């Protein structure tokens, strides 16, 4: 690992990530699903050069005018999401890794 780089979190396909919010914006004890839903994405693909995410409500990648709706592509070096998971009761919880 190069100097200045460190472990952020592990990611696998179908895991959940929140973009656009910071830790201080989220009350993990009493999550507001209305606030979190627009920022909740599922890992769709992983490669050495890019991470592909899709919005959790988008079932398939519809492409309009050359752009996929509900899709976010990031480089591993620019990943700034918060890894989370959905428990058995549907509550959004922070992942512990």
Shape label: globular
| Number of E-state strands | 8
Count of discrete alpha- or pi-helical segments spanning 4 or more residues? 1
Please indicate the count of domains. 1
Percent helix, as a range, is: under 10%
The strand order across the widest sheet is: 6-3-2-1-7-8
Series of H and E elements: EHEEEEEEE
Strand content: 25-35%
Contiguous runs where pLDDT drops below 50 for at least 5 residues? none
Give an overview of the whole structure.
By secondary structure, this protein is mainly β. It has one domain (16-94). The protein has one helix and eight strands; from the N terminus they run βαβββββββ. The protein has one helix at residues 33-36; strands at residues 16-18, 40-46, 51-55, 63-64, 67-68, 71-74, 82-86, 92-94. A six-stranded antiparallel β-sheet has the order 6-3-2-1-7-8, with no helix packed on it. Strands 4-5 form a two-stranded antiparallel sheet. The protein is globular and about 40 Å long. The two termini are 18 Å apart.
